[in-house]
Amino acid sequence: MKLLTNIYQVGGPSLTHFFDATVTLLKGKDGWFLIDCGTPEGYEQVKENIRKAGVEPSQIKFILGTHGHYDHVGAAHLWKEEFGCRLFLHALDREQVEAGDSVKTSAALLYGTQSVPCLVDGLIAEGDAWEGEGFTVEALYTPGHTMGSVSFEVTAGDYRLLIAGDAVWGGFSEKIGSSEEAWRETLDKITSRHYDFYTFGHVNPQLIADADERLKEAKMAFGNYYNPWFKTFFETYRY
Length: 239
Fold this sequence. Notes:
The protein has helices at residues 43-52, 70-73, 76-83, 94-99, 107-111, 180-191, 211-220, and strands at 2-4, 7-11, 23-28, 31-35, 60-64, 86-89, 122-123, 129-132, 135-141, 150-156, 159-163, 197-199. It is of the alpha/beta class.
């Protein structure tokens, strides 16, 4: 689904496998790239959705990971193997991905599977920027859900979009590297800025308007982060 000019959501709820977090396709000055890439379970459908957007998956140059969890970058090794894509993460989530730590990546904890070790090709730090066709993307360090979590600010003309990953409405568990102190500071940081729209890690394809007020309410509702959606995704629940 097209979100803005040269920006599409190609994975996540209602689009691909229900394990998948939001996957965003963007046209950079030097080629197409992804923000997050979903899980192996959704890999084929993500590729098909990219084709529906008029882009060949072989045109994807690199992946920017919001953090090192299975639902966000679990398929990165497949993108590397098939297309030679490079994976970029924050330094503090690098080790768990490269080691295939299936607890820290949440693969075993939430999805009943195992992470495949995946080499991280480069690191993301606050202020890193990428030029797109009609927009710019800048990394914002947003720890809390994990200590290596980043979000991305997209400036397109007069509009500012926050791609928040799990910095907003993510789940809290020390087993996956969460820190309440860091997360509260992150929410203070996010709500001190202005955004026209935002999207986050587990949402249907859409841009959410009235972003400033909605983000303030997400900060106010921090208690929900301790148990918003943390149940095993590989089992079926009646209620």
